[in-house]
Design brief:
Distance between the termini: 113 Å
Order of helices and strands: HHHHH
Shape: elongated
Structural class: mainly alpha
Radius of gyration: 32 Å
Oligomer: single chain
Largest sheet: none
Number of strands: 0
Strand content: under 5%
Number of helices: 5
Length: 160
């Protein structure tokens, strides 16, 4: 049995992850520049790529399962062990390429997470500086109780 369907799915996964990596790098620049509309567009595109990656991964799992005889160990490593010749080399190269792209993608996403968290902290601090926490600017009963009775103004003088 040939591993061509698995190779095709891995090639597609590599391409999709590389596009996702490019979008993540664009997201980093948008976060640094504070471009919210561009960031929103990038997030929409990312969701489409994530859905496509999920579907391709399901297809890869099915192809791997068929190739390995419906075993529970449906990994690329198991496919590499079962193949020989040029297919084995191609699977190894694709496995390595996909691993590298995923590692780089993980680093970029971690940086984006940190940038997002820092931006939210900045917004929170700015908001706290603009909106004071003590809202007791008006007189209250506790302040009126401390004033002596003679200092209170009377609205109606009963002696007149």
């Amino acid at each position: 049995m040939s591993a061509k369907p698995i190779i095709e799915q891995l090639k597609r996964l590599c391409v999709l992850h590389e596009h996702l990596l490019t979008l993540s790098e664009e997201k980093t620049e948008a976060l640094k520049a504070g471009k919210t509309k561009e960031l929103s567009n990038i997030l929409t595109k990312e969701q489409k790529y994530i859905q496509a990656i999920g579907q391709t991964e399901e297809d890869r799992i099915k192809a791997t399962s068929v190739f390995l005889g419906y075993s529970e160990n449906n990994t690329i490593s198991a496919c590499i062990a079962k193949t020989t010749g040029s297919e084995k080399e191609e699977l190894e190269q694709l496995y390595e390429a996909l691993s590298n792209v995923l590692g780089h993608l993980k680093k970029v996403n971690e940086m984006n997470r940190q940038l997002t968290r820092d931006a939210l902290q900045f917004i929170s601090i700015s908001y706290d500086m603009l909106v004071p926490k003590d809202n007791n600017f008006n007189y209250s009963k506790s302040i009126k109780a401390e004033l002596p009775k003679s200092s209170r103004m009377k609205l109606f003088d009963s002696k007149a």
